[in-house]
Structure formats: structure tokens, C-alpha cells
Amino acid sequence: MLKAILLVSIGGAVGSSMRYLTSVFMHKWVSQLYPWGTFIANMLGCFLIGIIMGYIAKIQLNSDDYKLLLVTGFCGGYTTFSAFALENYTLWQQGNVIAAFSYITISVIGGLLAVFSGFAITKL
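and the corresponding C-alpha cells:
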């Protein structure tokens, strides 16, 4: 358990740092009319999690260490959107298309409502 926590922590620290650098770079070089830093981090994170999980499946790697370090740690630290996308991909691959679409809808709408609610509470 301690090894797993260390792997996730190390990957998460590197991923979070890279997320910050992505935002700094995008803020410096791209128009701020759109949240490009978050968008780029989300798309890169999804691309990376696809490559990592695809490669792990391709070589039939049985060790969880790489998943903990690179998927849960790095990709999770870089963007949790990649985990969200992977979960929906898995649901889709399992034939649970309705579950995938409902999970997407509920997560997006629920997340927005949670943010609005949090702001509303602070104004009380």
C-alpha cells in the first residue's frame, strides 16, 4: 500500500507541475478569450492516458506499478478529465453506451451545478 501511495504521489506531483506549466505557457502565448490552458491539458491528458493504457494492454503488462505512476498519478495530476474520458471509453467498449452518455451528462451538469452552489453558499 505504501509503494502504491508513493507511486501515485510522485506521478501526481510531476503531473500537477506539468499542468501548471501548460497553463502558464498557454496564458503567455495564446489569447485568453477561451480557457486554452485547461482545454490543452484535458486533450493532452486524454491522449496520454489512451497511449499509456493502449500500450499496457498491447504488451499485456500485469504490473499495476506503471498504471499507478503514469495513469493514476501523472495523468490524474495533470487532469482528472483524462480519467473521466477513460471511464467513458471503457463503458462504451463494454457496450454500455447509455451509461456512458448518462455519466457524461450527469457529470457535466452536476459539476456545473456544484460550482454554482458553492459560489451561492459563499454569498450567504
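(Above: one complete record from the training split.) The two ends are 42 Å apart (CA to CA).
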